[in-house]
């Protein structure tokens, strides 16, 4: 009995003293990016490949983690302003972002695809040569890349910007746009949910996903890079791929 009391007391003291307490970090997520990050309809909890990966890493590297849903468009400014500590949420490593934040080693590679309604006959060639309405998620690497390509090559499409990928899919289905450009896995997610859409083809070079952190946060950078190495060597990594990415 006495022993138990001492133990409880010790645990309470350790939790209260910063040197002993577990570090806790906040991950910013776009909650509308299945299968990488989303809010589970049944539990109301953040879920997805990235969320579960990071939960495993936190447990195994000894830190606390919470996931904060927010708008993708403002997620890097929020990181810089210390409202969050990292972005592990399907974020592509790009040279522009790397000027502002530090990326972990890449943990996944994805192609970009053109998504069209299931009955569409548009080809990738049509998308680049006709006056189609093309939807992209605002603030994404694909939005910036396609905007730049249009400026350089004078493509005639009209760009429409969306807050999230599912909203672009909505507009595809009700005919407001003819095609959307997005990462392949969220596109596959929409297809597998029977949304009446299909892939018309890939576009550009594949993206590499990494975790964004503040440049001066060396401690977290090490935890994340070491954590992913550990995770990738564990059978759980295969389990996650099977669960979320159909691998
Ligand atoms: N890969 C693209 C990017 O980094 C799209 C990401 C959108 N991800 C998300 N969680 N909304 O910009």
Automatic annotation (TrEMBL):
Pfam families: SBP_bac_3. Residues 24-247 form the Solute-binding protein family 3/N-terminal domain. Residues 1-21 form the signal peptide. This is Polar amino acid transport system substrate-binding protein. It comes from Desulfovibrio intestinalis. CDD domains: PBP2_peptides_like. PANTHER family: ARGININE-BINDING EXTRACELLULAR PROTEIN ARTP, MEMBRANE-BOUND LYTIC MUREIN TRANSGLYCOSYLASE F. Keywords: Signal.
